[in-house]
Structure formats: C-alpha cells, structure tokens
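Hi P.,

Sorry for the delay on this. The queue was packed all week, but I finally got your sequence through. Input first:
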Amino acid sequence: MSFDPAVEEGTIRGMNLTSIVRQLEAERDRLDFAINALRGVNGNPGGRKRRTMSAAARKKIAAAQKAMGKSESRKEMNHP
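Then the structure:
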C-alpha cells in the first residue's frame, strides 16, 4: 500500500495503470515511426554505410604493411 493519497491499488486518481501504460507505448511507437522516417529523409536510413574494399586493394595494403615492417626491423637491427 502506498502512502500517496493520489495512488490507490492499481490506479492513479481513478485511472487504470494498464490503460496508461498502453497509451504511452502507443505514443512511443508513433514517435519511433516518425524518427525513423526522418532519418530516412537524408538518404541514410540505418546510419553510416560501410565501404567495401576489393581483394586487390587488400593485397596491396598487406604488401605495403609487410614492406614497412621489414624496413622497421632493419632499422632496429642497424641501431641497437
């Protein structure tokens, strides 16, 4: 039992809590729909688009990283 006179068993001044929760959930759904619609207006509905890289580009980057690693290790060997 609550000490607040406005709150009675399952009601707030005669209003059913279940009904209030349903109304709030419906309003939330309407707001979510509106927000998602506005996000889609700028042509970017789900956030940032990931860019893909071709296999050839990945090979070039891997080769460059390996070459950089070899040159770094040579520098370390020459300067102890």
